[in-house]
Predict the structure.
Amino acid sequence: MKRGTAVWLAGCALAAHAGAAETAQQRGKRVVYEALQALGGDAFLHMEDRVESGRAYSFYREQVQGMSIAKIYTRYLAPVPGKLSVREREAFFKDESSIVLFTEQGAWEVTFHGARPIEDKRYTAYKEGTLRNIFYILRQRLQEPGMDFYSRGADLYENRPVEIVDITDADGLTVTVYFNQLTKFPERQVFKRRNPDYKDFDTEVSTFANYHNVDGVKWPISIRRERNGEKIFEIYSDSLQINKNLKDDLFTLPAKVRMLPKAK
C-alpha cells in the first residue's frame, strides 16, 4: 500500500471514531488527520514542490523595515526522521537578483557579489522552524517514530471555534496548533525556541489565512510570523503553483560563483 493511501485510510478510521469516547491523545491525532484530509489528503502528501509569488514584508519593533517582490520555491525530499528534508529558494525583486538558498546541507545568500554562507544561528532557526511547521509536519513527519499528539480541547481563537493540539516529536520538541473546527485548517501555531544569545526562550507564533485550492491542495496565501509578541514577517501570495517539476539547479550554487566569508 502506498504511503499516501495508508495515511489517508488511517485518517478516515480516526474520523469514524470521532463520536466515541476519546483520550486526549486519540482526539489530538484525529484532529491532525482531519486537517490533513481537509488540506487535500493524498494530493497534499504527493505535493512534490511549490512556488509562491507575492509581496513579503519584514518588520522591526512593529515597523516595516522592508518590502519586496518575493518568489519562494520549495521542493520536498525523501523524509528522514528528525532531519531537514526540504530545499527552499527565496528570490527577491522582479529580476530575482537577491537569493537565499536553504538546503539540508547549509544555506547561502547569493547576490551579484557572490555567495555568502549565512550565520549559524540563522540557519539553526530556519531548521528548527521548519521541523516544527505544521504543514511540514503533515507532509513529511507524520510517520516518524515517537510523534505524539495531545488535545488541549476546544476553545475560541479570534471568536472562531478551534481545536488545540500539542504535537511533540521524539526529541521532545513541541508545537501547539490551533485548527479551525469548521474548515479543519490550521490557523495558528506556537512554539518556544531557545535564544542562543540570552539563553532564555523566544516564543514563535505563525498565523495562516486565505486558503486557496490549487490542484486539490489547500494552502494559505497569507502568512504572518511573530516573535515574543512582535510581528517580524508577512507574505501575501498573488500566485501559487504546485508540482512544477523544479530542478536541482534552482537549489544549487552556480558552479563559478565567488564564495564569500560566512556572515557573522
About this structure: The domain at 3-251 is CATH 2.50.20.10 (outer membrane lipoprotein receptor (LolB), chain A). The first helix runs from residue 3 to 16. The chain has one domain: 3-251. The longest strand covers residues 63-76.
